[in-house]
Design goal:
ten-stranded antiparallel sheet, three-stranded antiparallel sheet, alpha+beta, 15 strands, about 400 residues
């Protein structure tokens, strides 16, 4: 532009001829460099200075381009940075919202679990209360009066021990376990076992009462007696029994048990007044049976109207059925004798007593002592002469005693 001419010192001979440059002085060697000539003036740069200048020019040019590009695209860059920051902010907000939702779900689940736990616990408590009321109802059921012996052994149902809730063992088995659900499951299983035992106890009771009723009916049928089964001094309006619905299994079974128990108790009360027991306790020793025999005094055939039970003088003689004393005193060949009316045409006599312990008109209970064994009247030794009569006629007492043995399972 200004007439400057730059020549690289490392040029060829042809280039040197076309661009004459002053030669270096003699004795010096031209080195590599860069020479700028203008109007006869020359400015020579060394390699380092040359490349420094070139680098400076390049840097300034790059800086200018970068600055121009920045100002040209500044708004786009700012918008991109802002957009990226907004995206990050939105991402953080979404993450926070997700965490909050997760916390809410966890809290809701915990509340729901707690509510379900409390509900299940309430159900278990209600069920336990129901089972306890059932156990109380079962404990109020007892066997009907045992018949067939003077002094029956005490016997009761075994529902008391078998129906005790075993929640404590379930708790002990849980130990130190922190699993509440497992503990509740164990308690529920324990209540299930109690429920099954209660149902089994009801089934056993019903079978026992029904079996006893069948046995009592069989005994009465064997005796051929048409007895008045109405209980004395009782009455009231008739209210039929209704079985609970199918959904109330326990109450339905309990009602059946009560029906069977009522029938068995009615038959038992009837047999309380039927002389199916022996008048003495301990080993029974029959010295003379009912029917034709040789008279012990005349040694002639005679009708024996009762059974002789041999024993020791002074042994107690018991009433073989409940009734009312109609005779108590000396009666000819009977000696000291007691007669008891049992109703329905049945009566019993107890002869040869050494002592009488009841009076006429007394109400005697089954098994009550009416006198002491002896040998008064027409007797050859200590024994009790026992008679059973129907409408005043002597019948074989063994028929009734066999019925009593059948009641006892003999």
């Amino acid at each position: 532009m200004f007439g400057w001419q730059a020549v690289w010192s490392g040029q060829t001979a042809h280039q040197a001829r076309s661009n004459p440059v002053p030669r270096p002085r003699s004795g010096t060697r031209a080195g590599a460099g860069f020479t700028i000539a203008h109007a006869g003036r020359q400015i020579r740069f060394g390699p380092v200075a040359f490349w420094i200048g070139v680098g400076t020019v390049v840097i300034m040019a790059g800086w200018s381009i970068a600055t121009a590009t920045y100002f040209a695209f500044r708004d786009d860059l700012l918008r991109s940075v802002v957009a990226r920051q907004n995206e990050q902010q939105y991402a953080y907000e979404d993450r926070i919202a997700e965490l909050r939702a997760r916390i809410d779900r966890t809290t809701s689940r915990q509340l729901l679990d707690q509510e379900q736990f409390e509900q299940k616990l309430d159900d278990l408590l209600r069920r336990q209360a129901t089972l306890e009321s059932r156990a109380a109802a079962l404990s109020g059921i007892t066997d009907p009066l045992t018949t067939g012996s003077i002094r029956p052994p005490a016997r009761g149902l075994d529902h008391g021990s078998s129906l005790e809730p075993d929640l404590a063992p379930a708790g002990r088995k849980a130990g130190k376990s922190a699993d509440v659900g497992a503990k509740l499951s164990r308690i529920e299983a324990s209540l299930d076992r109690i429920d099954r035992r209660q149902s089994a106890a009801l089934t056993r009771m019903q079978e026992r009462y029904e079996g006893k009723a069948r046995k009592l009916r069989s005994v009465l049928a064997d005796l051929g007696l048409a007895l008045d089964t109405r209980a004395p001094a009782s009455g009231g309006p008739f209210v039929p029994v209704k079985l609970p619905g199918e959904g109330n299994g326990f109450e339905r079974a309990l009602t059946r048990v009560n029906i069977a128990r009522a029938q068995a108790e009615q038959l038992s009360r009837t047999l309380v007044s039927v002389p199916v027991r022996v008048p003495v306790t301990g080993d029974v020793d029959i010295s003379s049976g009912f029917g034709v025999r040789m008279d012990p005094f005349l040694h002639l055939a005679a009708m024996h109207t009762g059974i002789d039970f041999r024993g020791n003088g002074g042994d107690p003689v018991h009433a073989t059925a409940a009734g009312t004393v109609t005779a108590a005193g000396w009666s000819g060949g009977y000696g000291k004798m007691v007669e008891i009316d049992h109703g329905n045409g049945l009566s019993t006599r107890y002869g040869h007593l050494s002592k009488i312990e009841v009076n006429v008109g007394d109400k005697v209970r089954l098994g009550q002592t009416v006198g002491r064994l002896g040998s008064t009247g027409r007797s050859t030794g200590p024994h009790v002469h026992y008679e059973t009569r129907i409408d005043g006629d002597a019948v074989d007492p063994q028929k009734f005693l066999n019925a009593g043995a059948k009641l006892n399972g003999g």
